[in-house]
Specification:
Oligomer: single chain
Strand content: under 5%
Order of helices and strands: HHHHHHHHH
Number of strands: 0
Number of helices: 9
Largest sheet: none
Helix content: over 70%
């Protein structure tokens, strides 16, 4: 009897994983993904396991597998801001690193991809302020770079302004310290060239 129940639960979880994998569409804001509905409270744990597998694929140099696993993890728990932040930062700082990609156009492509991930996360995560805050941090990093090293074709002032705008969205979403950070970024934007 117990084996039958365990087998039924395992089959249900496997079916949920298969359905989540086959469901390519991300949920609308405020809507739970199919995986979240089927897996309930363990969806974020399942996604966390998948993020470990993302790291393993990245370390092994299997970029296509890394990206596929990341997409799956984001579909498993789109409401969790941690996945969006992790993958967005990975694209910007790991793949878009000047040490990894000496060509500015290649770095720009990775930075834009990371920002697009954060845009999606800001729309879908339960706490969009956390995602907006991380977007601001990326623009802070860009503002600190020399013009010739900056991955995006923007000025230092534009980077500070973009950081301030993201901090302001984070503040509106209730993120601590974001209001002060937005004001400081606006001041830096006014002083920047």
């Amino acid at each position: 009897m117990i084996r039958t129940r365990v087998a039924a639960v395992v089959l249900l979880l496997a079916a949920g994983a298969v359905l989540a994998w086959s469901s390519r569409r991300l949920p609308a804001p405020g809507e739970h993904s199919l995986a979240e509905r089927l897996l309930g409270p363990i969806a974020e744990t399942a996604a966390a396991v998948q993020w470990v597998r993302v790291d393993e694929a990245w370390a092994a140099g299997r970029i296509d597998v890394c990206d596929a696993r990341a997409a799956f993890a984001l579909r498993l728990a789109p409401g969790d801001p941690n996945g969006w932040i992790y993958y967005g930062r990975h694209l910007v700082f790991d793949r878009g690193s000047i040490l990894r990609e000496p060509d500015r156009r290649d770095r720009e492509r990775w930075v834009r991809a990371g920002l697009a991930v954060l845009d999606s996360g800001e729309r879908l995560a339960r706490t969009p302020g956390r995602v907006a805050f991380q977007r601001a941090v990326i623009f802070l990093a860009l503002a600190q770079m020399e013009d010739e090293d900056r991955s995006l074709p923007i000025t230092r002032r534009e980077a500070w302004t973009a950081a301030a705008e993201a901090f302001e969205r984070a503040a509106l979403a209730g993120e601590p310290l974001a209001d002060r950070a937005a004001k400081a970024a606006r001041e830096e934007a006014l002083e920047a060239k």
